[in-house]
Design brief:
Distance between the termini: 60 Å
Radius of gyration: 25 Å
Mean pLDDT: 91
Largest sheet: 8 strands, mixed
Number of domains: 3
Low-confidence stretches: 616-641
Shape: globular
Strand content: 5-15%
Helix content: 25-40%
């Protein structure tokens, strides 16, 4: 199947744009490789420390420095449902790799916070920053240089992107991502949303709300709606970093454990010591990043990935922007309806055909690159499959069959020839207010254009107080500013969704414009989010005043304040006291992130693009991609101890 011309054009542009930084990245990757097991580069003292506490047989394997050592990095904790299943995975992994002559070591853990717990709370202001902290934790775990490949155990919002960013900074090591799977289906997402809206209206008690939430989030595993966590799992499949069909197998099942064992053995077999060396830095390339964007769009995935995919790409020396998302969205059909873009959950999606079905349909439509590396080798079509328990002949208890040719439920999953929508439902909107992302896949066409007076808020608490006071029964565009990464860490603004939905249901024309995030929970109300630049970077949201007419148009890609030019340019940027955002709940520890983080469209990252290491480093020197290089004017090659 020929590749779609838009896919080809966007990919070629990304390759050209990324040439300096991608070249530097690949050079770093090659420089990090060693002959034989990685731990062979360590001194005897180093190595002895690295296996001192290990069982005798495993210690012998590590001591001989002949066979691979597989690192385990996990986001396990037993408070959060998505991560609790990982408690039992290390034992399964260690046993599985021994069977193929390797050793697995638990290299380290990463933090894992839940936006579902912290939403609307001060802790949410650490959420986005936790992604880069997870990447740093990953680097610390791997810094011992004992390992030949890595198993990454993670699921949710910032965890998988953080793990992958960390993995790419050790791009010479193979990487296999191991999910925990979704919890079984509980209270339907539709009923859950209805209770939330009734509570926002004062028509349901707190006890009724809590009972509904507890019936929805009721057991071990990932939340079942298609938010950022489950978008992560879809993207790991489309990028070839999971075993086929691994994403949506529930925890605590025989198949889940068999897939974990199979993933462990695969990680042991693709090290540099074998015949199938597949480093993660060669799996994640320009084509696989484009594939990830397409997979996100075709499934109506989380808007958070307009940040995270940019950051993941950056870690691999690849530069993408929102124009790339926008152009691809115009030609990528929407193949799924999963809540909040429909009523089904991910268990229903998996039963209807799942990820293998989606990958095959997109390949058949010419909308994915097949000629990419995956953990199974060359070719993405190997991932058009779903797993089943084997009959005992398979050494790891799992086998694969081709994904079904027909959808099991066309209300949930469709072929590319009969999509739910001809486009991916993610739009770049721009104008004199800046550039923003708008997810319209769940927004009815009659709500995609709003032109109404602005009501300006500096916090979501201010908005909710006004709503509860009954002062928002009108047409308006809520302009919520000082929610960007530099201001307060760019928290998700889930608390606004029920209130705005109630107003829209009552017949009001409402929209949200913000430099904050809405995540995979972006729903039926039009929302222009991630507005860049944010106010603290000179963004025009700081020029908006109550009563200004704002136009948000998901059809034309317009984000405009309809204010006379002379009036607009005579205004000064608004200011706000952001001191409270920097203190309490540990926020003071993250001042360095707020002070150094990049813009949302640049991935909201705290790390630079890869660049060649210059031989002469000066205070004002620049590397080939234009980053100022700190240091002295001395040539380091002439420095003496």
């Amino acid at each position: 199947m020929a590749v779609h011309p838009v896919l080809e054009t966007v990919t070629a542009r990304i390759i050209q744009r990324s040439r300096p930084s991608r070249g530097a990245y690949l050079a770093h990757l090659e420089a990090a490789r060693v002959n034989g097991p990685q731990r062979g580069a360590l001194s005897c003292t180093n190595l002895a420390h690295g296996f001192a506490a290990f069982p005798a047989n495993d210690k012998l394997v590590l001591k001989e420095v002949k066979k691979p050592s597989v690192a385990i990095i996990s986001s396990y904790n037993d408070m959060l449902s998505a991560h609790q299943p990982f408690e039992t995975f290390p034992a399964i992994i260690k046993d599985a790799v021994r069977k193929v002559g390797a050793v697995a070591q638990f290299a380290g853990a990463t933090p894992a916070m839940c936006d579902g717990v912290t939403q609307g709370q001060p802790g949410m202001e650490l959420s986005l920053f936790s992604r880069d902290a997870i990447a740093q934790s990953t680097a610390i775990a791997l810094s011992h240089n004992m390992f030949d490949s890595v198993l990454y155990l993670g699921v949710c919002d910032k965890i998988v992107p953080g793990l992958l960013i960390g993995a790419l900074h050790f791009g010479h090591l193979p990487a296999v991502f191991v999910p925990a799977g979704p919890m079984t289906t509980g209270l339907s997402n539709k009923d859950k949303a209805a209770i939330r809206q009734r509570y926002a209206q004062g028509k349901a008690t707190r006890d009724e709300l809590l009972e509904g939430e507890a019936k929805s989030y009721h057991g071990a595993g990932t939340c079942t709606f298609y938010g950022t966590a489950n978008s992560n799992q879809m993207l790991m499949e489309v990028m070839g970093l999971h075993l086929p069909g691994a994403a949506f197998i529930s925890p605590g099942t025989e198949l889940r454990d068999a897939l974990t064992a199979a993933a462990a053995q695969r990680a042991a077999l693709i090290t540099a010591q074998g015949n199938e060396y597949i480093p993660v830095g060669h799996v994640v390339d320009e084509k696989s990043i484009v594939n990830a964007v397409v997979g996100l769009l075709a499934t109506g995935g989380s808007t958070n990935h307009t940040l995270h995919l940019v950051a993941i790409a950056k870690a691999a020396g690849i530069v993408i922007d929102w124009n790339d998302f926008d152009e691809l969205s115009k030609v990528v059909p929407l193949l799924t309806r999963i809540y909040p873009n429909g009523e089904a959950d991910v268990n229903h999606f998996h039963a209807a055909g799942g990820t293998g079905f989606v990958i095959r349909e997109l390949l058949d439509a010419g909308l994915l690159h097949d000629d990419v590396n995956t953990i199974l080798g060359k070719g993405l079509r190997k991932h058009c499959a779903e797993p089943f328990l084997a009959d005992g002949e398979s050494p790891h208890g799992v086998t694969w069959r081709d994904a079904p040719l027909e959808s099991g439920d066309e209300k949930v999953l469709r072929k590319h020839t009969n999509p739910f929508s001809a486009d991916g439902g993610m739009v770049l909107v721009q104008g004199n207010l800046g550039r923003a992302v708008m997810k319209v896949s769940a927004v009815k066409e009659e709500h995609r254009t709003v032109q109404a007076p602005a009501l300006v808020f500096n916090s979501q608490e201010e908005f909710m107080d006004t709503y509860k006071a009954g002062k928002l029964d009108r047409d308006f565009v809520a302009v919520l500013r000082f929610q960007g990464p530099r201001a307060n860490g760019m928290p998700e603004l889930h608390a606004l969704t029920p209130a705005l939905a109630n107003l829209q249901d009552a017949g009001r024309k409402v929209a949200l414009v913000t430099d904050g995030r809405m995540s995979g929970a972006s729903g039926k109300v039009p929302a222009a989010i991630h507005v860049s630049p944010e106010v603290l970077a000179g963004g025009a949201l700081g020029l908006v005043r109550d009563g200004d007419i704002i136009r948000v148009d998901g059809f034309t890609g317009t984000l405009e304040a309809l204010v006379p030019s002379d009036v607009w340019h005579a205004r000064a940027l608004a200011t706000a006291d952001l001191t409270p955002n920097g203190v309490g709940m540990g926020r003071e520890l993250f001042a360095m992130y707020r002070n150094s983080i990049s813009a949302a469209e640049s991935g909201a990252t705290t790390f630079p693009l890869p660049s060649p290491i210059p031989t002469t480093v000066g205070l004002h020197a620049q590397d080939p991609v234009g980053n100022t290089v700190p240091g002295s004017d001395e040539d380091y090659s002439t420095k003496k101890d």
